[in-house]
């Protein structure tokens, strides 16, 4: 029959997946771009499966429900969660209450589960997931108002209880309308589990507020996060640390590629990241160097140069962001295990998004070289020596308050602001809401 | 004299429709192939059937409706975009004796096609009543209008040696020397314009990932399929125009005219699709500045070169 | 070719386009969204352009399409930029001062109708084989060249002058353009404060001013 033939064709298509990262998920999910059977998409409307990775407490639960409801039918949710840890919210039914499949632990192989879910959805073996929230407008229509609101008069009034966008302070001499919107928390480029409340005037950001949504002490799903957490308390082989570092930086680069519209190059970076994470031999640094050459040729560097600079002194005191601004600070210099391996610091100048991208690729490559040398020697990192995580020196991570970053982005185009945030790869801990604060 | 139709009234839509359908499929296959090659996942024969599978998925998927959209415009936008692609393709000649619609102001028809295309993209972003598509739509209009100006100068430069605005005459005038050699600036500028009006690859400011898919952020199911199909069709039409205006059209040894046209169109298509995977998306503000300060003077220069060449 | 020789299709097409032009023109003022009204105006002009095509003015008709499209597109953009009002969620009325406008409208209609009914229109069908575009080109760049060239350059100068005169210092910088969009410095020594303040959303209408045009 025509219908089932169509469904069979559709079932064989690359699965469009929307990745929603909760707390403790780092940059998980980006590596799926390397799988030919999957297709990571930018909008939930394009997806059939939403991959919910991590912990969804606090404000993330309702956000996930909203995103889940935006997927067109047939749809399903696959939950990739850390083994153990608190349940998101037993008293509030949500999309996570009836996932099509659950994958446990960082070692879980998600790709076959996604493909299988999609096939079952289109084959009719899996029912499409019902709405997680009520299908009501957030601001119901309030009818005619006392002052001529509700569709009358020149200004149109205030239907639905929502104030109309009014003009704001001028930009280039024009008094344009301003709109406030909440974007995130699963938007590509935003820090993990963070909602951006933006006041737009055209495409220019008038004001930006970054609000973390995650609850503290969420269980960690990302193996990179877990590895560096472990290194603070126990001796860990240097090779594994460096491979985890390379994996993270390559994932961050893949996110930037995705944001810039270079899907195929993002898939290549993702496959390198996956290679860095699995296997004994890891991935060849020369492949990372080749990716660097592709990056130069892609005009991404030209496109992102001059974007995302912090005027005056750079607020970063450590981590890849500081080194991209020319600050030569790396905690690995103080570790005798690294010194024995011939650790050399990599520094860029410029402090813009371009420099940060180049820095991450260079660090990934250097990390892989160190890893291969360390594997031969069997070097081990001891917890009493300083530890350099991909986000900066432990324990404070060299983090910068989100307010500083947000304030620096006022006046930028939204696409530039996203590019800046993506290239910064802000520390997950800084994105955690303090205990007791409302999301 | 009303525009003369060399083909029968029923044959015209059929021919244009077939060419666009085959062309759109070719664009999808080239896109999938380019993705695989650049990503390093390996080229396999299933790249030929992948577009059909993805289309089947879109047919089966639900068409989501947002809160209080402009339903008429939202449905009209892909139809208008595809219709404009068809109108543009109709004026392109396929052989010395055949073109679907031999309009004596063919270049101006293309100007209309491009400007109405910008309107169609704007409508597609404005209609869903959603914030990110709206932002993408008017961000794109700035780029689209800038490309429009450059395109007009480039196409007029092509009309000068032929002393006619009709595409037939323009192809005839390339019998001795192709325009890509006669005015070398023309084809690169035209490629930028083509990418800009079809918002493909580096110019994908209308459907970009930084706005969650831009004007297509709320489109799913049949709406999305129609829009992607229309975009591919427009790319095919631009490639056909480029072949006719710069690459000598149906001129070529041995093989018949239509085969050469098809080959040149396919080559231009491959170039445009590959650019999408190898060049990052431009920043809107920087591109508009560059377009007005660099591309437009280059287009003037191209026009001057063409004029000087056409003098004696 | 006398009018009797024209195919019936041309007559039918003329009436279809004429009625559509009037109908869309009417809808411009009865619709409830500024962007829709801009595009309905465009549709009205496209119909007029189609009639020009029927009159064998191919170049003029297509050029009319082209120009009206770009004009209405820019108008729609400015409407959105000033009012950020998406598809019909904030319905609004398109008419100002309806009484006065109605009087003026009726007067204009009466004038136009008088001209249409009482005027003597020439009946000079084009000889077949006329090179319309060539003739037009020779007129534009021959006898009337001075008129068109000075008009064109004057229009360009006016547009540039209007933009230069109207742009002024914004929150973000001294001049218009790139500088105006750069963020201010965070350096505490110079005393400039960061611009990260969310604009106050007032309930009232506060100083919207005149829309002008089709607002």
How would you characterize this protein structure?
The complex is a heterotrimer of chains A (439), B (312) and C (215). With 439 residues, chain A is an alpha/beta fold. Chain A folds into two domains: 2-123, Rossmann fold, CATH 3.40.50.12280; 223-431, Cytochrome-c3 Hydrogenase, chain B, CATH 1.10.645.10. Chain A has 13 helices and twelve strands. Chain A has a five-stranded parallel beta sheet with strand order 2-1-3-4-5, with helices on both faces. In chain A, helix 7 runs antiparallel to helix 11 (353-377) and helix 11 packs parallel to helix 13 (414-424). Chain A starts with a helix and ends in a 15-residue tail after the last helix. Chain B has one domain. Helices cover 67% and strands 2% of the residues of chain B. Chain B has a two-stranded antiparallel ribbon. Chain C is mostly helical. Among the domains of chain C are: 1-91; 147-191, no CATH class. Chain C is 58% helix and 0% strand. In chain C, helix 1 (8-30) packs antiparallel against helix 2 and helix 2 packs antiparallel against helix 3 (58-83). Mean pLDDT of chain C is 75; it is low at 170-215. Chains in contact: A-B, A-C, B-C. Chain B binds chain C through residues 1-3, 67-70, 73, 103-105, 108-109, 111-112, 115-116, 118-119, 122-123, 126-131, 134, 138, 141, 145, 148, 164-165, 285, 289, and chain C through 33, 35-36, 39, 42, 53-54, 56, 58-59, 62-63, 65-66, 69-70, 72-74, 76-77, 80-81, 84, 86-89, 126, 128-130, 132-133, 178, 181.
Short overview:
With 312 residues, chain B is mostly helical.
Q: Which labels suit this protein?
A:
heterotrimer, B: mainly alpha, about 65% helix, globular, C: about 220 residues, about 60% helix, disordered C terminus
